[in-house]
Design a protein that fits this description.
Layout (H helix, E strand, L loop, with lengths): L7 H18 L12 H4 L13 E4 L2 E6 L3 E6 L7 E6 L2 E3 L12 E3 L9 E4 L13 E3 L4 E5 L12 E3 L4 E4 L13 E3 L4 E2 L15 E3 L6 E2 L13 E3 L4 E4 L13 E3 L4 E5 L12 E3 L4 E5 L12 E3 L4 E3 L1 E2 L14 H4 L6 E5 L1
Parallel strand pairs: 2-6, 5-7, 6-8, 7-9, 8-10, 9-11, 10-12, 11-13, 12-14, 14-16, 15-17, 16-18, 17-19, 18-20, 19-21, 20-22, 21-23, 24-25
Antiparallel strand pairs: 1-2, 3-4
Length: 345
């Protein structure tokens, strides 16, 4: 690591990182940790910071942190044949000192295919100082508290993933300030209230995922203004009233999930305008009436689920029909009042 006379800013950043590791995974001399995962990550003043795993350096400043769970072969005693694979994860609270890494463009402490980390507590206010951040991923932890409005100050964010934690409260309207945000994932929390109507939804989103919460109220008509939106996932909430016809204005949409809510009324025929749509899940609501014939012209639609509603009539020509595994389309259309699936309308 360069000395302070050569590069004091980078030395300061490294000191913040080492202090953060002490909080997240225990001190190097802690016998309960056997200097894992600090050792595995290569975070040590003895090595140049450019070799530290999970750390990205540019122009002599730390600009990226990406630490995901990983597997480690542990032998006891070291060098013996008595070994096992253990998963190494981050735990404890997010150190407020990370807010001092003001050149940071990526902070990824989220989980991966191996599972989640085990970070707890609230998001520290000091992260509001990271105004250069483009990616903030804290998904698949055990973080709690409310999603704080100060996140709306991180105006360079392009991806915000807080999914599958224990966050509660409402979606802060200040997120509307994130004009560059393309991916917003808040799924798998305990969020309440409604989806912000005229503000609170960033205008340039490509993915909005708030599945698996406790959101209620109606789906805002204003969501139809998100012209770049490719994925809209509002499933498993408590949303009610009708599906707004403005959803049909989302010309780039390829995935729409409104399942397991309390939506009522007819399926809007405007959904037939979603020419890019390949997945549509409206199952387990209180929808009534017939399936719009306009859905039959969606050439890219390969996945359709309408089960658990009060639909009547028949399946329009062009929609997914019987298969060898499910010749009567029971999974797609079951539990409706009357759906004739063996012949087109």
């Amino acid at each position: 690591m360069p000395n302070s006379e050569e590069n004091p800013d980078l030395v300061r950043d490294c000191a913040i990182l080492l202090g953060a590791m002490d909080t997240l995974v225990g001190r190097v001399n802690d016998p309960n940790w056997y200097h894992l995962p600090t050792y595995e990550l290569g975070w040590s003043p003895r090595f140049p910071v450019t070799s530290w795993n999970g750390i990205d350096v540019s122009e002599s400043r730390v600009v990226g942190i990406n630490i995901e769970p990983y597997s480690h072969v542990s032998c006891s005693p070291p060098g013996s044949d008595h070994c096992h694979i253990e998963e190494v994860v981050l735990r404890g609270s997010i150190p407020p000192s990370l807010g001092g890494l003001t050149y940071l463009r990526e902070l990824d402490l989220g989980g991966n295919h191996l599972g989640g980390n085990q970070l707890t507590g609230e998001i520290p206010y000091s992260l509001g100082n990271l105004t250069s951040l483009e990616i903030l991923d804290l998904a698949r932890n055990q973080l709690s508290g409310e999603i704080q409005p100060f996140l709306g100050n991180l105006t360079n964010l392009e991806r915000l993933d807080l999914g599958y934690n224990q966050f509660s409260g409402e979606i802060p309207p200040s997120l509307a300030n994130l004009k560059r945000l393309k991916v917003l994932t808040l799924a798998g929390n305990q969020l309440t209230g409604g989806i912000p109507m005229d503000e609170g939804v960033p205008p340039n989103l490509r993915l909005l995922n708030v599945n698996d919460n406790q959101l209620e109220g109606q789906i805002p008509q204003s969501l139809g203004n998100l012209s770049d939106l490719e994925g809209l996932h509002l499933g498993n909430n408590r949303l009610s009233r009708e599906i707004p016809s403005s959803i049909g204005d989302l010309s780039s949409l390829n995935s729409l999930d409104l399942s397991y809510n309390q939506l009522s009324g007819a399926i809007p025929s405007s959904l037939g305008d979603l020419s890019s749509l390949n997945s549509l899940d409206l199952s387990h609501n209180q929808l009534s009436g017939e399936i719009p014939t306009a859905l039959g012209i969606l050439e890219n639609l390969t996945s359709l689920f309408l089960a658990g509603n009060a639909l009547t009539g028949c399946v329009p020509a062009g929609l997914p029909r019987g298969s060898k595994e499910d010749p009567y389309n029971l999974y797609r259309y079951r539990n409706n009042q009357e759906i004739r699936t063996m012949r087109p309308c």
